[in-house]
Amino acid sequence: MATVNAVAVVGLDCVFPAAHGVEAYWDLLMRGGDAIGPLPEDRRGPGFDDTVEGGFVDTVTTFDNDFFTIAPREAAAMDPQQRLLLQCAWRALEDSGRAPSALAGSDAGVFVGVMGSEWAQLHMGDYARITPQLGAGSSAGMTANRISYHLDLKGPSLAVDTACSSSLVAVHLAVNSLLSGECSTVLAAGVNIVLTPALGMVYQQMGLKAPDGRCKPFSMDSDGIGRSDGVGVVVLRRLQDALDDHQRVYAVIRGTAVNQDGRSNGVSAPSRWSQQAVVAAAYRRAGVDADQVRFVEAHGTGTALGDIIECAALGEVHAVPRDEPCAIGSVKGNIGHTEGAAGIAGLIKTALALHHRIVPASRFATRENPQLRLAERGLSLLKAPLRLPAEEVVAGVSSFGMGGTNAHAVLASAPRMPVTAVRGPATAGAFTLSADTPEALRRNLTAQAEALARRPRGDAASVCWTSNQVKTGLPYRAVFTARDTAELADTLRTAAADEHTLARVTDRALRPPALAFLYPGQGCQEPGMTAALYRESVLYRRHLDDADDALRPHTGDSVRDLILADDPAIHHARWAQPALFAVAHALTKTLAELGVVPDAVLGHGTGELAAAVAAGMLTLPDAARLVAAHATAAHDLPDGGMLSVRATPQETAGILAAHPGLFLAAVDGPHDTVLSGTADVLRQAAADLAAHGLNTRRLPVPHAAQGSADTALAARIAALAGPVTATPARIALASARHGRMLRDEIPDTAYWADLAVQPVRFADALSALMTEAAPTCLVELGPAAHLLSLARQGDLPTGIRLLHPAPGRAATFTDLAETVGGLYLSGVEPCWDALYEPAHRRTERLAPYVFSGAHRFGQTAAAPPAAQPAAPDTTPRQESTGGSRPPHPGGPDTPADRPDPALSAVIEAVVEVGAYAREQVNAEARLYEDLGFDSVMIMQLKNRIEQQLPQGADITVPQLLPALKSVGALAAFVRELTSTGGTV
């Protein structure tokens, strides 16, 4: 299939009667379900009676306004069509394989088909109750604009009203916007909510209303229209763009056409000739012949005249020589006539049919109307599901408006893409999930667990990759590693059910992350360290090979092969330092490809060489020469070792003085001192230290170097290494040689050689690092968490995360994935693609976001009653009812036993203007980010505050604007205004 001028349907979401979501919709269609029923109790009012039947959505009153930062008063004034569209748009974008927040600021467009606003009919005639919120909430045009505003989309945004063809005309406009290059992504939608009996009365007077509220398309029993609710959203992209981005393609839109009846048999009467013309035009634009079209999702209202005219028009186009007739059907038999959403309902049905390669039977088709003369017109009614062949299938979708605006779209099955086989055992992935509150996170964990449990057990990597693309961007985050979907489902279910488990795996980044990498020196090497990771990770394998290539000319043999052979020779002085350097460098480069780059680095002893490469101070070849020189020089040293002492340097001073040949090697912490010397000297020193009640431990190193002040050893290392050219560090480097940050210094070769003989001042260097770089995460790049253990014993800030991507000889890809997940929890946005093989980077269907159903907004525009006034809560807010917004650091700190009248007045004004529950508003709440205030609400708030000021002073907007950071900041402004008699 040519991708030029083809548009892919990459995301879907819908809410139709008895079908909340795409899976429920498909199930309803495949089982031939009937979604028609009585009018819900909460909609009954003037004009409606108990006999009304139709297709009604039962979630019209629920809306997660906190998720979209919409104040309760504004949410209550919004047309339910706007509320439903916002949530559907979010879920459709997720279904397209992209996080909705990733489109913020982009050229994405929104086109919504909508037949006016029955909400406006109910409310805008009561002039005494009109408010700015009701004005915006009742506008049909705002159905599209709300989506663009709340998702921060900058492309075209418009509502389309062509009566019942509105949403398919919106698709037509959206397709053209994509093909013209105006947008790169488009949301096309349709919405209809039955709130008044008016249009039903019109249908009845025109003789078009079905007595039982059911549409019976193309049936002998056809007797009129049954009105229905519905909302559907499709996400469209140019086909080539979708394929390039590995998005799932449900179907391809090959062409669309729109026309008008013109002056026909009446403004509301259909025209056979115009319907015929629009179908033929769409086929021409799609480049297909009528005999290629396997089935058509017809408009099919179930009115006697409408069905006859439509079949005559389709017959004129399709009555050509063909192997089998063109099948027709209409979803209106299942869900009724969704009017402004009718076209999108048919489009989604058709896209799903092409995707699943089966077309559902058309309800009421068993009693075919013989007057339609289907057989002689090359048509057949879908009396049973139609299985589609494996090759490309072409289908049509028709939608006709009462005023004569007709639309037709030509769809084709998605191109078959080559599937890359996954070699080897399943590898771990990091499944991510984010939500706006902790409770929402728990709710969505449960939904994901249930959805995964229904899948056949399989490799979890592609599911995890999809979650990384889709389920990120919200403030509360969770991440879990797993190798298969059953394991992942169990993990998610456990986390959702156990508050303690959830607390361990979830986090919320309140400030930008800062990372510090720690590089260990000799002593923590292990045979076979990272060998399993080497086998499982292409990334790590490539970078360890690079490090080995750099070292081999100087070491004479392969460090990599020694590691993979699980050879204990790695403990020898000749190999320990090169092996640790290779592992540290490979881990650094692997994390860099995953989008994880340190803000500061710190090395212990010769670990500073790997840190210097990470900081951009040394090149890999120069560092490799230095490492090899250190190893060669150490190999020739006499036997000796190092002794770790649980003591301060001052407590060991006497022992050092009493034992010539004993040296201070390192100060690793307030009570962590390392001594070096020959084996005999260390034995004597250990005995003396034990006699003084001090604990000691021999370290696994075969010689004593650090602290010896052996200038000859340092000179030999410098000679072996040759000239080394360092450059200014690109990132902060803490020097354990000096015990401080290096700043602008450029060390010479002597500096690097002295790492072998000068004491390591790790504790001082770590203290400088924590003070000046203020990292939120410490990551150790070595086979043991040695430096993390030292850091943990120090005075680390609360909440700092300690991570170790390669723990021990058994370190695997799972450990690396867990580290990346831990960084994500801390606010890092990894380059997730690099964690997965190309074969795993394919979009899988995940459960859509589950919004809160706790807030209900009825059929009247009255805001829900706010809580009764109470004493102001001035404690820092941990979480509001919505809970999605972080507390603002500003605001006064008023003791609870000293009420603040200004704060009380501001809080009550905010509660009144926004109709928030009282417990959601406190000094820390931010007016814009947390409470959803806009310019209109700010002016209403200004008026309320002016009324409450004792002096009745006017507040100017320039005075007010700087104080709108938070409720507390506004209270401080009011307090100052009151104390100065109305001047600031």
Structural overview:
- Helices cover 37% and strands 15% of the residues.
- The protein contains 34 helices and 29 strands.
- The protein starts with 6 loop residues before the first strand and ends in a 5-residue tail after the last helix.
Question: What is the class of the largest domain in the CATH system?
Answer: Alpha Beta
Largest sheet: 12 strands, mixed
The outline comes out as elongated
Structural class: alpha/beta
Tell me briefly what this model is.
It contains 34 helices and 29 strands. It is of the alpha/beta class and 984 residues long.
List the helices and strands and how they pair.
Blueprint: E1 7-16, E2 19-20, H1 22-30, E3 36-38, E4 53-55, H2 72-77, H3 80-95, E5 109-114, H4 118-123, H5 132-137, H6 142-151, E6 157-160, H7 166-179, E7 186-192, H8 198-205, E8 230-238, H9 239-244, E9 251-260, H10 272-286, E10 293-297, H11 304-318, E11 326-329, H12 332-335, H13 342-356, E12 358-359, E13 379-381, E14 386-387, E15 394-400, E16 405-413, E17 429-435, H14 438-453, H15 461-470, E18 476-482, H16 485-497, H17 499-505, E19 506-507, E20 515-519, H18 531-536, H19 538-555, H20 559-564, H21 573-593, E21 600-603, H22 607-614, H23 620-635, E22 641-645, H24 649-658, E23 663-669, E24 672-677, H25 679-691, E25 696-699, H26 711-721, E26 732-735, E27 740-741, H27 749-754, H28 762-772, E28 777-780, H29 786-793, E29 801-803, H30 813-825, H31 901-914, H32 935-948, H33 957-960, H34 967-979
Parallel strand pairs: 5-6, 5-7, 10-11, 10-15, 11-13, 20-21, 20-28, 21-26, 28-29
Antiparallel strand pairs: 1-2, 1-8, 1-9, 3-4, 7-8, 9-16, 12-14, 15-16, 17-18, 18-19, 22-24, 22-25, 23-24, 26-27
Helix pairs in contact: 3-6, 7-13, 10-11, 14-16, 16-17, 19-21, 19-23, 21-22, 21-23, 22-23, 23-26, 31-32, 31-34
Domain Carrier: 900-978
InterPro entries: Ac_transferase_dom_sf, ACP-like_sf, Acyl_transferase_dom, Acyl_Trfase/lysoPLipase, Ketoacyl_synth_AS, Ketoacyl_synth_C, Ketoacyl_synth_N, Malonyl_transacylase_ACP-bd
Keywords: Acyltransferase, Antibiotic biosynthesis, Phosphopantetheine, Phosphoprotein, Transferase
